[in-house]
Specification:
single chain, 204 residues, mainly alpha, 2 domains, 9 helices, 72% helix, elongated
């Protein structure tokens, strides 16, 4: 609904079944081919994959839940509501718009997903406030990168890869302040790019 879009529009809820082009499919095929070269038999394949899946079962559940949360955020309108609320910060929007990208990656686990969620709204808010849509789109991505270190998927993958199971909360506590501080610094820089000469000359 306006002001997110120019006129009332139905949300295009389209599921893309991209099994063949997914990254994991290539990894799976490479593992199968490598196993054949290593003379694995089908039983050994099943045992290896079964043991691996059991070892990372909590990680897989966490990642699935976070992906579900990202989808819920999108189709419930929560992302639009948040973005419109951030747009009400007025002249401080370059700073808070950057933090929106940070929050998007923290929720979804992906800078790409954050851009999909909030990229359109960054443009709308920038147009309403007389800011550069290119700047705010870039701010969404740059702030999102700072949120990557606190998203659940990254933390779970890191704890699984290092064998530090059930310490995800400890990792989050270690990196949360650094993530927020870096996002705030990016937000300050984006604010300078938006308003302060000669930084404004860098904005296309």
């Amino acid at each position: 609904m306006p002001p997110a879009v120019t006129k009332p529009t139905k949300e295009a809820a389209v599921y893309t079944f991209n099994l063949l082009s997914a990254t994991g499919t290539g990894i799976l095929l490479a593992a199968l081919v490598g196993g054949l070269f290593m003379k694995y038999n089908p039983l050994q394949f099943l045992q290896s994959y079964g043991a691996t899946i059991w070892k990372v079962r909590y990680s897989l559940i966490t990642i699935m839940l976070m992906l579900g949360l990202g989808t819920l955020t999108r189709y419930s309108g929560l992302d639009t509501t948040l973005e419109l609320a951030f747009a009400n910060t007025g002249v401080l929007y370059p700073f808070f718009g950057t933090l929106m990208g940070w929050l998007g990656v923290a929720l979804t686990g992906s800078d790409t997903a954050s851009n999909v969620l909030f990229g359109g709204m960054q443009r709308v808010a920038a147009d309403q406030l007389g800011l550069s849509p290119n700047l705010m789109g870039a701010a969404n991505s740059a702030g999102g990168v700072m949120g990557k270190m606190i998203d659940a998927q990254s933390i779970v993958v890191a704890s699984t890869a290092t064998g530090w199971f059930n310490h995800e909360g400890d990792i989050l506590r270690f990196v949360f302040f650094h993530s927020l501080a870096l996002a705030a610094l990016v937000g300050v820089f984006v604010t300078l790019l938006a308003y302060v000469y000669p930084f404004t000359l860098l904005v296309v």
